[in-house]
Amino acid sequence: MNELLEVKLYFAYTSPFSYLAMAPAYDLERTHRVHVRFIAHGINIRKVYGPLDNTEADRRKIRYLYLDARRIAKERGLTIYPPKKIFSARLAFYGGLLAEKHSRFRPYSERLFERFWKHELDVEDRVAIAGIVREVGLDEKEFIRYADADARADLDACFAEADRDEIFGVPTFVVEGEPFWGEDRIEWVIKKLDAMGLGR
Question: Which domains does the chain have, with CATH numbers?
């Protein structure tokens, strides 16, 4: 059997479009001979979408982005409520990195995305993140130890890989070095994989 091709997906738990990219990304492993590797990437909204100086035009830009995200989410039966502030996803990433080490990334991420975007989870609350870790069958004490020890280095390694891949925003798929930015680029990803003869 041929080795599976690695497809990278750079994502952030605090990105609504990352949330929307997850299910199509999981589907790639069912429809194609690929393994999707999910890589945490911090986002800087101002760098990706341009200056946001709290002018009315900037506020309109942000409102429109969330309007699009909510339209797509509604079609898929998902809920996205715009956050009331810009959150740090660092602790959430730590939980995801630990979950990945124990093959529990998907159930962890599904819970985290759903609750964050329903305003049911504070991703900056260590106890709340530890609770999700426990729900997916992992040791929350191990999470606390990991968060205080090795997690930062592991997350920095993700960011360094993103720099090497010249990633500037999320979600971004990378197939054999070619980037596809945005959840709506999944069709182009599929076309590339099909052209490579990787369909199942």
Answer: 5-195 (3.40.30.10)
